[in-house]
Write a structure and sequence with these properties.
The complex is a heterodimer of chains A (405) and B (206).
Chain A lengths: L1 H11 L5 H15 L19 E7 L8 E6 L13 E7 L7 E7 L4 E4 L7 E9 L8 E2 L3 E2 L10 H22 L10 H16 L3 E6 L6 H20 L3 E5 L2 H17 L11 E3 L4 H15 L3 E7 L3 H11 L3 E6 L5 H7 L2 E4 L1 H11 L2 H29 L4 H6 L3
Parallel strand pairs in A: 9-10, 9-12, 10-11, 12-13, 13-14
Antiparallel strand pairs in A: 1-2, 2-5, 3-4, 3-6, 6-7, 6-8
Helix pairs in contact in A: 3-11, 4-5, 5-6, 5-10, 7-8, 10-11
Chain B lengths: L3 H19 L5 H36 L5 H21 L6 H32 L5 H16 L2 H6 L3 H36 L11
Classes of the chains: A alpha/beta (405), B mainly alpha (206).
């Protein structure tokens, strides 16, 4: 626009400089036209060497609509004149038809994923190297068609692992159903649950149960609500009030139902108070402030942290520690575990959080699944040791076998 | 049916989510996103329950003059002001909601976050007391890693950053990976229990 005005101004004032007007025209051409299809020297420099060996294929393991075009770098990309700045990708459904630019790839890159194809349609791709001033000779691909796949072949190893683990869990559940006694190693944090509830009762203080800050779509929150059921039942038996501040509305509803059912099971439905299971806020630190305030006012005798926690974990645990509560935490967030280990009396580390429900209920079916999980872990340890030995002796294929696509 | 309905929904949803991980073809590839959208819709409606619960508790506290009732007035006023400002003027830049959010809400959240520094100090003091051999190892490792991350560590001994990196890359990483493997197995086991209806406590079941 500015050039156009300048050109009109020059003409208006009668400047007759052909060279300058030509150069302005050239600039205008560059700004308004599409990329040319043949090599073009704009300033007298030789065009870069073209890329070679262009190939294409359907993008594997996807829902269709994508193809992958690959090429070998131009001789002037990184070597030679080292002038290539990018590769421009054009596409057409007819090899003799008009090619439209669909994107670019940086220098050094040898692949372009076209994410806008129609399955079943044949596409031809044209690649040109561009050095900022001129294009190389174009190179053309053959016909490429995209399609959707019904199975992700890169995840066969994961499927095998899931099947083996599921088989082990179901097998042990069946054994438990037949009445076989299954040994589960003692977990100190879970052994202490009854003691914690008892201690709070003796002190005449309530229990506080915090199911984390995530919603019910998080498996840790579900595990937290499951454990809440066992704790609430024990609290109902001891007639110890239980406070459950929640960070999400759905968690509040689930916790209310769970505690209500636990009180019903314990034969004390009259002691259930829905207002003790309350929603505070969705805001992370607003929730931390609210729970801290409740702790300082109510002075709970026992605090349970069971679920998914982030930076608020230590703020909550240290406040609980300061009011003298016995604290049991459980989370599958490795980054928060050190804080809980430091500030709480007992900590359920990772898998122990998920084992808690089965452990506390002592139901054979649940214990069977726990046993299967332990066997799965044993199997994984064996695979890891074998993998380490094989890789140490140069058998690198094992890395590919264990990598999930 | 009160029990079976949710269990059937759970089974179908869980099975479909697992299948879509292995089947990239439509409609499976779109189902997880669809379920996530449904969850968001449910969560929005559930928010009404949460706000209702919050209002009920605090209005009751004010009307019955229970302990600390003036704080409930602050909460109710805060809610009305933010809600009203958002409804009347919107939440874009330059609106009262935007101003209050950035000048009251965010600083208060930051203040809570800043308290973490003091809590870390008090917790570290307790954790790093060398009462047992394990605590002594923890103490020494922590000092080495902390020093290796600051210029002073390099000044004291130029090998210190390398030792700090080694602690983080090997013993620390090995421990973290062991925890992750346990978590992954626990997640699979718990998910299987829930999908198959063996674990139904979250539905307030026995």
């Amino acid at each position: 626009m500015f050039n156009m005005l300048l050109l009109l101004l020059l003409l208006a004032i009668g400047v007759n400089s052909t060279t300058y007007i030509e150069s302005l025209n050239l600039t205008l051409v560059l700004q308004t036209s599409t990329f040319p299809e043949t090599p073009q020297m704009l300033h007298g420099t030789a065009p870069p060497a073209p890329p070679t060996d262009i190939t294409g294929q359907d993008r594997p393991n996807d829902a269709g609509g994508r193809t992958v075009v690959s090429w070998t770098k131009s001789a002037d990309d990184g070597q030679g004149k080292n002038s290539v700045q990018e590769y421009v990708v054009f596409r057409s459904t007819n090899i003799d038809g008009e090619f439209t630019e669909i994107g670019t790839a940086r220098k050094g890159v040898q692949e372009f994923v076209d994410i806008s194809t129609t399955d079943g349609v044949e596409y031809y791709y044209m690649i040109k190297a561009f050095d900022g001033e001129s294009f190389s000779e174009p190179v053309l691909s053959g016909a490429i068609t995209s399609s959707a796949q019904w199975f992700h072949v890169g995840r066969v190893n994961m499927l095998v692992a899931v099947l083996i683990l599921s088989f082990l869990i179901l097998w042990f559940i069946q054994r438990a159903k037949k009445g076989e006694e299954l040994y589960i190693r003692p977990i100190a944090g879970l052994e202490a649950v009854d003691d914690a509830v008892g201690r709070a009762t003796e002190m005449g203080r309530p229990i506080m149960y915090i199911p984390g800050i995530m919603d019910m779509d998080n498996i840790q929150t579900i595990a937290g609500v499951i454990i809440l059921s066992r704790v609430a039942r024990k609290a109902a038996e001891y007639e110890c009030p239980i406070l459950v501040p929640t960070c999400k509305s759905i968690v509040m509803s689930a916790a209310q139902e769970t505690v209500k059912e636990a009180y019903l099971d314990a034969g004390r439905p009259d002691s259930y108070d829905a207002d003790k299971i309350r929603y505070l806020t969705d805001d992370q630190f607003g929730y931390a402030a609210g729970v801290d305030g409740m702790m300082m006012r109510e002075k709970p005798g026992a605090v349970f942290f069971m679920g998914c926690f982030y930076a608020e974990s230590l703020i909550l645990a240290e406040t609980g520690h300061s009011v003298g509560a016995i604290q049991i935490a459980g989370t599958a967030q490795p980054s928060q575990l050190p804080f809980f280990v430091t500030a709480c009396d007992y900590t359920l580390i990772g898998e122990e959080l998920f084992a808690a429900s089965a452990y506390l209920s002592k139901q054979p079916l649940l214990l069977g699944s726990l046993k299967g999980q332990d066997w799965g872990k044993g199997l994984l340890i064996i695979i890891l040791i074998i993998g380490i030995i094989l890789v140490s002796f140069g058998f690198q294929q094992v890395v590919g076998w264990l990598t999930v696509g | 049916m009160r029990r079976q309905g949710p269990l059937i929904i759970t089974f179908i949803t869980g099975a479909v989510i697992i299948l879509q991980y292995f089947i990239p073809h439509r409609p499976f590839s779109d189902l997880q996103q669809l379920f996530n959208t449904w969850f968001l819709v449910i969560a929005v409606f559930a928010l009404i329950l949460g706000v209702g619960n919050l209002g009920k508790i605090h209005f009751e506290r004010v009307f019955r003059r229970r302990e600390n009732w003036p704080y409930s007035i602050v909460l109710i006023l805060g809610f009305i002001i933010m809600f009203g400002a958002g409804i009347i003027w919107g939440i874009q830049r330059g609106t009262p909601f935007y101003y209050i959010f950035w000048n009251v809400h965010i600083p208060m959240g930051s203040t809570m976050f800043a308290l973490l520094a003091f809590f870390v100090a008090s917790a570290s003091y307790r954790a790093f007391r060398a009462r047992t051999p394990e605590a002594t190892v923890l103490l020494i490792s922590a000092i080495v890693v902390m020093l290796s991350r600051v210029p002073l560590g390099n000044f004291i001994w130029k090998e210190l950053p390398l030792i700090g990196d080694w602690i983080m890359a090997y013993p620390n990483m090995a421990g973290q990976r062991a925890i992750w493997i346990g978590i992954a197995l626990g997640v699979v086991s718990t998910s299987l229990r829930i999908i198959l209806g063996i674990e139904r406590t979250y539905l307030a079941g026995k």
